[in-house]
Design a protein that fits this description.
This protein is α/β, with parallel strands linked by helices and 313 residues long. It is built from 11 helices and 10 strands. Strands 1, 2, 3, 4, 5, 6, 7, 8, 9 and 10 form a 10-stranded mixed sheet that branches. Helix 8 packs antiparallel against helix 9, helix 8 runs parallel beside helix 10 and helix 9 packs across helix 11. It is globular, with a radius of gyration of 21 Å. The C terminus is likely disordered.
Length: 313
């Protein structure tokens, strides 16, 4: 039985698919199987995939007859075919360094209570220009799950790209399927649920590369306001289940409130009402958030005035 099952879910990424597959096969850690899923691609992805059919690492190749419409449905389908103790979802338009698996697996296997591990990532634009990169202050360490959620998963999603993470397959049976109801932040909720079941290994090494497309899911979600709806729904959900405190929730809501106010005028009235209802679901949140908003812009306005009179750069 392989230690790691690598799932490569693909949809119309023929341009990047060979690089993705090759960087999986070329890992220094070789105890893995590969499952390739194609979600009814309309480009020449199938031609590229078929080149690897006889490769010794390939366990399954599955082509959908109809597009599933959901990345998370493909995750679920791939996991059902896995035999490994650990799972790595290697998204088809990403790639990685050859030491990725060795780094993350070594860190996870060093702690019997570790259920999730990830490295740092570099965001690449279409012309292969580095847009930004993530950062962690240590070369690598394990964090207790609850602490990890509070420190790294509330004001932002530290595991923003599935390809940067590996996790224990047995935990999947303990995670609800609610993450599949989300189009934008289902992975965020998934990582939070996984983290509740053990420790998390974080590597500070930059070993994963992911591409940011102009028409990617997150960009479209922000334009429509769907990102606020889904993220706020998630925060309220995990608060109501007592996974986080009110203080944790408030910090999460604050991280969303100022960005929301900046784009609110561009959203239709029905979307604004829905978002604001989510912000103010919890008692006292309304006054706390408005106080935060006033404080934020008061500081901003004061600094702007000082800058205008030349007292600061």
């Amino acid at each position: 039985m392989p230690k790691v099952s690598v799932i490569i879910p693909n949809y119309n990424h023929a341009l990047y698919l060979e690089q993705r597959i090759e960087t999986v096969f070329n890992q220094s850690w070789q105890d893995f199987e590969v499952i390739i899923l194609d979600d009814c691609s309309t480009d020449n992805s199938r031609d590229i995939i078929e080149r690897y059919r006889t490769h010794q690492k390939i366990k399954h190749i599955v082509y959908n007859d109809v597009n599933s419409g959901s990345t998370f449905k493909q995750w679920d389908k791939g996991i059902e075919l896995c035999a490994g103790e650990f799972i790595w979802i290697a998204e088809s338009d990403d790639w990685c360094e050859p030491f990725f698996l060795n780094e993350v697996m070594s860190g996870m296997l060093g702690d019997s209570n570790c259920v999730l591990g990830y490295c740092q990532s570099i965001c690449i634009e279409n012309d292969n220009k580095i847009k930004w990169q993530s950062y962690y202050e240590y070369i690598g360490n394990c964090i207790e799950g609850k602490s990890f959620i509070e420190r790294h998963m509330l004001t932002n999603n530290a595991i923003f790209n599935a390809s940067m993470a590996v996790w224990k397959r047995e935990i999947f049976l303990k995670v609800s399927k609610e993450y599949m109801d989300y189009h934008y932040c289902g992975d965020w909720l998934f990582w939070i649920e996984v983290s509740r079941h053990g420790n998390v290994f974080v590597s500070g090494k930059l070993l994963n590369y992911f591409r940011k497309h102009k028409q990617d899911v997150s960009g479209l979600a922000i334009q429509s306001g769907q990102n606020f709806i889904e993220e706020l729904t998630m925060f309220v959900l995990i608060y109501e289940r007592k996974w986080i405190s009110y203080g944790n929730l408030l910090e999460s809501l604050k991280s969303e409130y100022v960005p929301y106010k900046a784009v609110a005028r561009n959203l239709n009235s029905a979307t604004r009402k829905r978002i604001e209802a989510l912000f103010f679901t919890i008692p006292y949140a309304k006054s706390d958030l408005r106080s935060h908003y006033f404080s934020f812009y008061s500081k901003y306005a004061i600094r702007k005035i000082i800058k205008m009179v030349g007292l600061v750069n």
